[in-house]
Amino acid sequence: MENINWSELTFGYMKTDYNVRCYYRNGKWGELEVSSSEILNLHMAATCLHYGQESFEGLKAFRGKDGQVRVFRMDENAKRMQSSSRGILMAELPVEKFEEAVRKVVRLNERFVPPYESGSSLYIRPLLIGTGAQVGVKPADEYMFLVFVTPVGPYFKTGFQPVPVCIMRDYDRAAPHGTGTIKVGGNYAASLVAGEKAKQAGYNAVLYLDPKEKKYIDECGPANFFGIRGNSYITPASNSILPSTTNKSLMQFAEDMGLTVERRPIPVEELSTFEETGECGTAAVITPISKIDDLDVNKSYVYATDGKPGPVCEKLYNKLRGIQYGDEPDPYGWVQIIE
Ligand SMILES: *Cc1c(COP(=O)(O)O)cnc(C)c1O
User: Fold this and answer.
1) If you measure from the C-alpha of residue 224 to the centroid of ligand 1, how many angstroms do you get, rounded to a whole number?
2) Interval 151-165: pLDDT, tens
3) What ranges make up the beta strands (E) of 15-162?
4) 2 CA to middle of ligand 1, Å?
5) Is residue 78 within 6 Å of ligand 1 at its C-beta?
6) Averaged pLDDT, 293-297
7) 80 lines ligand 1 (CB under 6 A)
C-alpha cells in the first residue's frame, strides 16, 4: 500500500478490500461469506434499527518486526459478544466461528496491516445485529454477524501522553441494572451528548460516576479507569461498567510485577490520593490522565504536572505493546499468529 502514510493514520475509517459476514436464519448460523461491498441490504423493520438489537466488538492485529501478524486475546472478544447477545436476546455466535471470521478477514486484508515501524495497527470491528423484521417489541428471528477492518493510528491524537478528562454529574452512560456490562450501541448513543460537550470544553473523555449513588468511579466512556497508589493498581468494581480485556491484561501484568491489584468500588474523593491515573482499552491502549475536573462541584485532581506519563503507566504500556507486537515473549498465550 504505497499510498498510505502509515505513521500519520488517525482512528478513523478507511475502506479495505473485504469484509466477512455470517447469517443466522431458521435457528442456525450459516457459513462465513466474503464480501467486497461496504453496504448492507437491510429490512426497514429490522430490530437493530428500532429496538437497539446491536452489539459490537473491537480488537487489533499488529505486525511484528518479524513481519508476522498477531491478534490479541480474540477469545475474550468472542465470549464478550456472546454475553452481549444474552443481554439483549440476540442469537449467540459460537466462539470458533468468531475466531475463524477474524482470521479470515485479517488474511484477506493483509496488505492493510500497518508495518511495525509505524506504530499503527489494524483495527478489527465485529458487529452483530438483529435483521429480522418486527414491529412489536420483541427479539428478531434473524441476525447478521459481520467483521470489517480498517488501519488505525492512535485513538488520541497525542498518542502516549497524559490527557485531561472531566466528570459531568448530570449524565450517565448506563443505568444501575441496565446494559453497562455489555458492549451495545445503546450505551454509546447515551454517551454522545456528554462526550461532545466534554470535547468542546477541551477534555478528552468523560469519566462517569456510578449512576445509582454518584459516589464511585465507573469508567471513561469507551475505556476503563485505573489508579496507581504506592504499590497498588486500583480499578473499579461496578455493575455498570464494561469488563475491558485491556484492563484484565493490565491487572495480570501488575500482579506479575509485584503490585497489589485492588478491584473494588472507588469513592470519588479517593482520586486525590492517586499518584497516577489512566484510561485503558483496545482503542485507548493506556492513556494516562493529566487531570480530572469534577465540573459540577468545581473540584480538580491533578496528576501529570510535567506532562509526562507516570512510571507505572509507562511500564504497563511497554509490557502490553511488547507482547502485542511480538517484541516480548508471551507467557500468557494471549497472541495468535495469523498464518
Ligand atoms: C470496549 C469498551 C472498553 C474497552 O474494552 P477492551 O476490551 O479493553 O477493548 C471499555 N469500556 C467500554 C464501555 C467499552 O465499550
Assistant:
1) 7
2) 998 777 777 899 999
3) 19-25, 28-29, 33-35, 54-56, 59-63, 69-72, 121-130, 143-152
4) 32
5) no
6) 97
7) no
